[in-house]
Amino acid sequence: xxxxxxxxxxxxxxxxxxxxxxxxxxxxxxxxxxxxxxxxxxxxxxxxxxxxxxxxxxxxxxxxxxxxxxxxxxxxxxxxxxxxxxxxxxxxxxxxxxxxxxxxxxxxxxxxxxxxxxxxxxxxxxxxxxxxxxxxxxxxxxxxxxxxxxxxxxxxxxxxxxxxxxxxxxxxxxxxxxxxxxxxxxxxxxxxxxxxxxxxxxxxxxxxxxxxxxxxxxxxxxxxxxxxxxxxxxxxxxxxxxxxxxxxxxxxxxxxxxxxxxxxxxxxxxxxxxxxxxxxxxxxxxxxxxxxxxxxxxxxxxxxxxxxxxxxxxxxxxxxxxxxxxxxxxxxxxxxxxxxxxxxxxxxxxxxxxxxxxxxxxxxxxxxxxxxxxxxxxxxxxxxxxxxxxxxxxxxxxxxxxxxxxxxxxxxxxxxxxxxxxxxxxxxxxxxxxxxxxxxxxxxxxxxxxxxxxxxxxxxxxxxxxxxxxxxxxxxxxxxxxxxxxxxxxxxxxxxxxxxxxxxxxxxxxxxxxxxxxxxxxxxxxxxxxxxxxxxxxxxxxxxxxxxxxxxxxxxxxxxxxxxxxxxxxxxxxxxxxxxxxxxxxxxxxxxxxxxxxxxxxxxxxxxxxxxxxxxxxxxxxxxxxxxxxxxxxxxxxxxxxxxxxxxxxxxxxxxxxxxxxxxxxxxxxxxxxxxxxxxxxxxxxxxxxxxxxxxxxxxxxxxxxxxxxxxxxxxxxxxxxxxxxxxxxxxxxxxx
Length: 737
Known about the structure:
This is glucan 1,3-beta-glucosidase. The chain is α/β, with parallel strands linked by helices. The protein has helices spanning 18-24, 66-75, 142-147, 191-204, 209-218, 239-242, 355-362, 366-377, 380-388, 415-429, 465-483, 508-524, 566-569, 573-591, 665-682, 703-709; strands at 2-4, 14-15, 29-34, 37-44, 53-54, 121-124, 153-154, 157-158, 165-168, 182-185, 286-287, 290-291, 324-328, 393-399, 433-440, 492-496, 531-534, 554-559, 601-605, 687-690. Strands 19-18-17-16-15-14-13-20 form an eight-stranded parallel β-sheet, covered by helices on one side. α11 runs parallel beside α12 and α14 packs parallel to α15.
């Protein structure tokens, strides 16, 4: 029996060949990725009587001819000769991929129930997900089971005959020899098609003895995954809180419960690129007019990031005595060209300089491109690694189009929202507290590319300034209603209002008035976490006496870098460390004291970068100050002569942009001292967040790369350097490095 399948976006065809080669006498498989799914290009099944095509709602076991199979593949229907058709119970997905299953044996001859849907893949013989073997979520091969002394069984099922089919759920990652699966599933959902399948089953004979014997000996299983009500009481049994949250009805029918109007939208889980750890039950429940779809009802706040800090369900205490140590997840849900330059690799003639122009260029393909980025750039393993590094907080930047888009904006609407929610759950899993950061507001609060649109500032400014100011307040009204839910009270430690409003180009009083209006809305909606506002680059001393009376409920956010100021980038390596130890420490102490500054102050962005050489850092195509190629198009803001300490033609970015493995030992020593000097300084305030966790090619901006290169402490709370013993030189390190 030969079957070729090359269309995966409709048929969702998966093949894992390892054990099948043993039992079936050989299989050839070649895989490719289509629309983010691993698809079989070709398979050959020898001497197997299988049903590779089943319509939704119909369970059929039969032998087929090549022609029947090919016809079914081509027109999406089945001309079945089922040996057994069983009543299909209600099926729900639980954790997005596998686990939490109840077993149910199908009795041959029962009718197919209309509107019931099989959302599992059909496996042959032993093809049941091994996640039920006490290791949920893992992919375990038959060979591994044998090596583990489990004999020739999976889920306690004996090895079956070649013609027996078993219902199971496929694993979404497909390393070799992982999960034996050979099946297609179609979304044929109408009652007419189900009735036709039943009629075909009845007329062609429901009781073929040979296969019934196989069924009896092998036991057919259907994974029934029960999806709980998404907003209800938590897993600790806090029933008192459940009445304060809406509940969704249990939708046990799978995709048939997704309204036609919402299919292939963000409200249709079966259209999502990635379903890992998402609840796949459809629900239209909203909180703050924002969807809860994808969330589970239970949560556990008992995790502890490390032994130096309390678990999530314990009080943190004062951030003035226990400062935050965290990292940003920059470039993930709000794009930034220097973090992921691969997304901006276009000819300059295309003018792709920010997320606005990128999504305009991509058009209909924006969803596929960006959702793949959301799903793959930051994963659960990153949150685990962050906690393993001795960090205890994450700052998650996202932008307003996660909530809403306006007019004819090209931004991808609300797709990043569910990835934000999943990221919050992963942070919870590893005990990491969260600093929510609205990185881009309607109209752009700074005109920089990381706000979404580079150029004019149309927030509190210009003819649409008032409109965009109100839209921004509306965004915070919805966000704060959503995140005031009980499930977030232990998780969200800080709530950011506006990242880096450029107050040097805006009315300072207008920004202050907007901030106070936003504070009133967010606090009024029940957010208990302190609110965060940016210093606006006005100078910390200028915030003394401004917005007083808020205590610790309003925190000033300062971002410290030495590379965007021509007076600082020219510092030698040792001078940069002295500046961090002396000037920044003094600023942190003064700003944190209401007699000399605003009061509560945090440092939510900093890095180890000592040059501005990273590609696209200063905007796409603008060059850099280090080499003297920084051309903004305006003479007064351009830097067209070298600004490294040597201030001559020896200023080159080659070494700065080299891979971390090529750095010499002296430069590594400097980078580690520079990082720990900044940690020392910023802990004189409410704490710090490194910018950023991951980059494609800028290691001085990547905490992940810094750890791997040994230029960051293995544990953020165990450091070798402090500012009491400043270095005088780094032998072997040129100042134009």
